[in-house]
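Is this the right way to post structure tokens for a design question? Let me know if I should format differently. Anyway, here goes:
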């Protein structure tokens, strides 16, 4: 793959170069004040890079800078790739959105819903409806994450070893059976909650395809797109390219997290379709170019354009936005006017969100403060990569929107 670098004059792409520099100045202050270790930002129009910059360190303690080929743990930016994998199988007739999850994972046949009591002895009842593949894609399954700390069911997950990551002894099949035995927060389809839905979807992909998740990714998405840096664990030869991971202390400053930072250094036993991939800016930019191109890049079609348009519509019941249907908070961004499709958040009403954007924009981010969005109306893709956990500490994503759109002047 050729080196990552700008390939269009910003003016030709509709940007004011001086205004683009505001992005760099603003986020440089995050690094200079110790709030971020370092970052990379990439802004492209019609697939061509108009602005690419880095600042700070991929490893503060070692004095190693962020470079354009630095590898980052993208965590939940894995989810759109897993969702795309499921919809590739949908196009082939291997699954339907209305299929019960139990068709692929039998332990999901007898789900129970939390009704009361403490985490150590929850009271439950049988689920009123079966969980469908559609529920996994839209996060309306009733599954959760242990790290939320908002609900007794979250504590059930933590007690089972599911907080950040999964028990080392379990593979993905074992994790899914464990989750199926835990109570749902609500009946499938009744609310939106961020959780392990996309991890379960990854197991559906494995069963429906007859391949391990990493093999399906490699053969059907990553290799065809030339995404050779994107893996569930970096090769030993590339370990020095992987950025160190940092957590925010009570004052919001970045402190190295050695324990959590081991994630990405080896392929885990349980392949997480919800958050397991490591990637580079060059790779994820190619993924975004494919999405902007309606499922095709450089003559290689990954998915049909109509399928992708269907994925990037708001699928929430009654056209609800996340502000009204989501349980709890899961990032620093506002969710008014923003729905959810099949693997992506989708902007329905930019005015309601109080952040510069376009109707039809679709996006997601990761636990370590990474983020992307695709704006078909402006033919714009934006990628921000850093390594600070959690993503809710600083308003990076909303500020990035402000700074990108103010620079677009055509």
């Amino acid at each position: 793959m050729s080196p990552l670098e700008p390939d269009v004059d910003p003016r030709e792409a509709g940007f004011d170069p001086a205004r683009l520099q505001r992005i760099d100045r603003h986020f440089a202050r995050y690094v200079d004040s110790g709030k971020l270790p370092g970052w990379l930002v990439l802004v492209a129009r019609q697939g061509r890079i108009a602005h690419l910059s880095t600042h700070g360190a991929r490893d503060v303690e070692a004095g190693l800078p962020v470079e354009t080929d630095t590898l980052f743990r993208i965590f939940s930016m894995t989810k759109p790739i897993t969702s795309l994998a499921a919809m590739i199988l949908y196009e082939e007739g291997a699954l339907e959105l209305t299929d019960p999850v139990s068709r692929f994972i039998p332990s999901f046949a007898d789900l129970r819903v939390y009704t009361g009591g403490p985490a150590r002895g929850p009271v439950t009842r049988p689920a009123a409806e079966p969980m469908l593949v559609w529920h996994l894609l839209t996060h309306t399954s009733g599954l959760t994450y242990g790290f939320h700390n908002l609900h007794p069911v979250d504590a059930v997950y933590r007690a089972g070893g599911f907080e950040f990551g999964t028990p080392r002894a379990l593979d993905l099949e074992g994790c899914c059976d464990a989750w199926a035995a835990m109570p749902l927060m609500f009946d499938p389809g009744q609310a939106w909650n961020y959780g392990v839905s996309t991890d379960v979807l990854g197991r559906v992909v494995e069963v429906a395809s007859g391949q391990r998740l990493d093999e399906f990714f490699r053969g059907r998405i990553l290799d065809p797109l030339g995404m050779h840096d994107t893996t569930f664990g970096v090769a030993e030869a590339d370990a020095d390219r992987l950025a160190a991971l940092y957590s925010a202390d009570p004052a919001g400053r970045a402190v190295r997290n050695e324990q959590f930072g081991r994630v990405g250094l080896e392929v885990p036993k349980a392949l997480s379709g919800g958050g397991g991939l490591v990637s580079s800016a060059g790779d994820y930019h190619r993924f975004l170019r494919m999405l902007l191109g309606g499922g095709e890049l450089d003559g290689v079609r990954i998915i049909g354009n109509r399928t992708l348009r269907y994925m990037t519509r708001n699928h929430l019941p009654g056209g609800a936005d996340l502000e009204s249907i989501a349980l709890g908070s899961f990032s620093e961004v506002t969710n008014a006017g923003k729905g959810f499709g099949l693997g992506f958040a989708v902007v329905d009403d930019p005015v309601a969100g109080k952040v510069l954007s376009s109707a039809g924009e679709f996006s997601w981010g990761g636990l370590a403060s990474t983020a992307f969005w695709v704006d078909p109306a402006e033919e714009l893709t934006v990628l921000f990569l850093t390594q600070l956990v959690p993503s809710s500490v600083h308003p990076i994503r909303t500020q990035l929107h402000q700074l990108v759109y103010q620079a677009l002047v055509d």
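Format looks fine. Someone answered above. Worth noting: The radius of gyration is 20 Å. The chain has a mean pLDDT of 95.
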